[in-house]
Structure formats: structure tokens, C-alpha cells
Design brief:
It comes from Chryseobacterium soli. The chain has five helices and eight strands, in the order E-H-H-E-E-H-E-E-H-E-H-E-E. By secondary structure, the chain is of the alpha+beta class. The protein has a single domain, classed as 2-Layer Sandwich (Alpha-Beta Plaits), CATH 3.30.70.1230. It is globular and about 45 Å long.
Length: 186
Amino acid sequence: MNANIQEGIILIPDLNGFTEFVFNTKLYTGEYIVRQLLSTLIDMNNQYFEISEIEGDAILFYRYEKNPSYRNISNMLCKMQDAFTLKIKELNEILSTTIDLSLKFIVHYGKFSQYTIGRFKKLYGKTIVEAHQLLKNEFAEQPSYVLFSHSFLENSRNYENECMADTRSIPEVGVIHYFEKVEQHI
């Protein structure tokens, strides 16, 4: 039995539109913008989550915790989204450009372990792979959202729908909360 296996939350904020952004933005400018945006997310985390990796346009956050608070996580994600939106607006003005990036979050829960290679800590387990698979979903109707997996919702307390404007239940996956109202196409 491995004592290193624990239950916890996986949080992945990911930039939508990143590939196109990289191809259409000068190297130095793009790197500056992405560094500013990811730093904003890390700052808004307020050291609640540990950082496992920064993967280009995404951050792999984790926290070992049984029965996490849905309300706390949801509120933090709303603050992250607000700070991200403000940072985009600020960078658009400073750089006299239009940054076409949005933010999606994956929140998953389960068992995973951690091992060390040199000075790097790596997460391992089915939960980590599942969280990455959720990034590539085809369920979201617009770019700015949080996908809470069933596993997270079933293991969290005080599940509510506070700061999200619109919600969509995906029976096989979980619940998507949109930061803005989804436009209805007639």
C-alpha cells in the first residue's frame, strides 16, 4: 500500500485560443502576455492550491483535501476569471492590441499520488489523466466556463450555483457553469 496516495482536487485553468494566439502574435509580445495572464491566475490562487506544473497555456493546480468546499472553489474561480478579464483589458490598452483569449477551468476530484524527479514534483494517477481529458471536451457552448466533474460535486460540500450566469448539466461528465450568459440561437 502506498501511503503517498491521497484524495484531492485537481484544478486546471486553460487558455482558450492559445494555438492561434501563438501563431498570430510576435514571440516576445506573446510570451509577455501569457506570462502576465498566468501570473494573474497564480496570484489569485492566493497559495490555496499547490502548483504541479505550468504547461504552456495551462496551470496544473492540486490540493489534497477531503470534502472540499464547492463555495470556496467557486468563489476563487470567479475571482480568477474577473482578474483574468481585467488583465486582458489592461494588456489590450497597454499594447494597443486585441487579445483573443478566454479562460476555461476544469475541477476534478479523486485519488492521485506525487513523486519527485530531481527538484520537480509530478502528480500521477487516473484522476490526473481524467482531468486532462476533460480539457478536450466538446460540451462547452462558449469559451469562458468551469467544468465541475461529477467526482468533484459528489465529494464537495455546500454545492451551489452562485456567481455563474448559466449552467448546463452533462450527465456523463458533470456540470458546466458559464461566466457569461450563453446566447440562444433560434
